[in-house]
Amino acid sequence: LLYVILEYHFGGFNMKDTTKKLEIRDFISIGIFGAIALFLFFVTGFAASLTLAGTIANIPIVLFFESVAFMLAAVKVPKRGVFLIMGTITVLPGLMAANIYGVVLSIIGWFIADCIAAQKKFGSKSIIGAYTIGGTLQSALFTFPMYISHGDYLMQRQEILHLTDEALQQYLRVFGSWYMYGAMVALTVVTAFTGAVISMKILKKYFG
To answer: Where are the alpha helices (DSSP H) in 97-177?
Structure first.
């Protein structure tokens, strides 16, 4: 059904004009793909958060599944701004956890990814690379305030995050470890890259 809608509405995915600025039609397209990314964010994020391991690796897991929406957007709208807007849309829910610094830093990360994709003219490899870099920076920068606070972040937001005392203690043991921080960032490199490669192959196979 998604294939039919996209093919009918957008008329294929072979357009590539990286020189023009974003137009109204482009914003509509990005908005649709952003909505898809948000849907994937909430569904996969909720499923992952049902376990402690899934909660810790939430961002790497979500980025694997969100990759299809980002690839669709970048291939359909290969213009400067697409990664920045998509990234901003998907990190804004972080405000619900009162992680303002993490959200702002993540947006900066997606700005860097956007610049890379535009510099490389939105080739397939550059799109995959830009998504991997943007996702990795999001993972590293969004969670940085959690780790650097040595648990204060979670304790101050215990009610907002609906954490029981037992759950809080479990998370404090994890978020106090810089080894875990490095492991999650490394895992994000793998999941973001793998998701982007698989998504790009699917697009090429079904949309040409």
So the answer is: 100-119, 124-148, 152-156, 165-175
* DSSP string for 112-134: HHHHHHHHTTT-HHHHHHHHHHH
Q: Going by C-beta distance under 8 Å and a sequence separation of 6 or more, which residues neighbour residue 148?
A: none
User: Is 120:88 a contact under the CB 8 Å cutoff?
Assistant: no
pLDDT tens figures, 48-86: 878 777 878 889 999 999 999 999 999 999 999 999 999
Report how far apart, in Å, the C-alpha atoms of 204 and of each of 58, 67, 189, 193, 194 are: 28, 14, 22, 17, 16
**Token output for 99:** 């992680």
CA distance linking residue 152 with residue 109, whole number of Å: 24
Distances from the Cα of 16 to the Cαs of 21, 77, 149, 191, 205, in angstroms? 12, 7, 44, 27, 18
pLDDT of 207 over the 90 cut:
no
Both tokens assigned to 15: 């357009």
Output the six-digit token pair for 134.
């943007």
| Residue range 94-121, pLDDT digits in tens | 888 778 899 999 999 999 999 999 998 8
In angstroms, the CA 203 to CA 208 distance is 7
Q: Which residues contact 71 (CB under 8 A, 6 or more apart)?
A: 127, 128, 131, 196, 199, 200, 203
Residue 68 neighbours by CB under 8 Å, 6+ apart = 36, 40, 195, 199, 202
